[in-house]
Amino acid sequence: MIDIDVTSSTPIYAQIVNGMKEGILKGIFQPGEKLPSVREMAKMLTLNPNTVQKAYKELERQKVVVTIQGRGTFISKEYQPKMDEDKLNELKETFKKAIVDALYLGFDKEELIALVTGLVNEMEGLNSDDKN
Amino acid sequence: MIDIDVTSSTPIYAQIVNGMKEGILKGIFQPGEKLPSVREMAKMLTLNPNTVQKAYKELERQKVVVTIQGRGTFISKEYQPKMDEDKLNELKETFKKAIVDALYLGFDKEELIALVTGLVNEMEGLNSDDKN
DNA sequence: TGTAGTGTACTATTAGTATTAATACACTAT
DNA sequence: ATAGTGTATTAATACTAATAGTACACTACA
What is the pTM of this model? Predict the structure, then answer.
């Protein structure tokens, strides 16, 4: 369901958050769909339930999922991302770091744009037919 | 010289590393040029010298700079980045996370590609005339 | 030779985060 | 009632980031 790399420097809960968001964009998870429970997901990923809970809480904070007491956690049917300046700057910083790394790895401009374009298409691949 | 955001979740030494690499790509720092000494840079950024030292050490590990005992730290004149699979995968993960964030912020494909293209051009702006 | 300016190494301390662990409670469905 | 949910809390361990202070080695240069 989600690939967890315990050797990564990215915290496990953050990997879950990223993986879920990526899966939703790819259409692997459908709006309204129920997520595995905290305990169930923890078993699947052989993690502590608290780690999964932290991820779910962060996903809810970002309005990506909605949790209902006693029922479970569900993919949000609608979410309206707020494009505030802080988030935009943070996004640019993230991209800048990645771009710098890529240029240092030997990518030239065209290759870099091609890489990103490929990743973007891969990301929205399964949703491209929908009208939403 | 380098913008340090002490409130950022990115460690200060990492901000220095990123900022230096970005500055080199932009041509603000020229190959062979001497960097401010550890103590000097620490004063400028009002940081502990050890933090700067950690950044310089990481930059040297990445072959971005060369240090000579008793003389100082210098921008590498030549560096040959190694494009191994691990680094490539790490790069892709970084881009994927940024792309997911961007899509969640409301960017569509075209806007996203445009954003990245803009950042790439901004990055290599000052070097674009050179032949190297 | 001596002095100042370099990088380097080491230890210690403080603070924060990530993860695991265990427990308890509230709510929902049946 | 009972099982399955999410939630909250506390504790412990480990790791990292940053600061602080000290000492040492090397280089340049007068």
Answer: 0.86
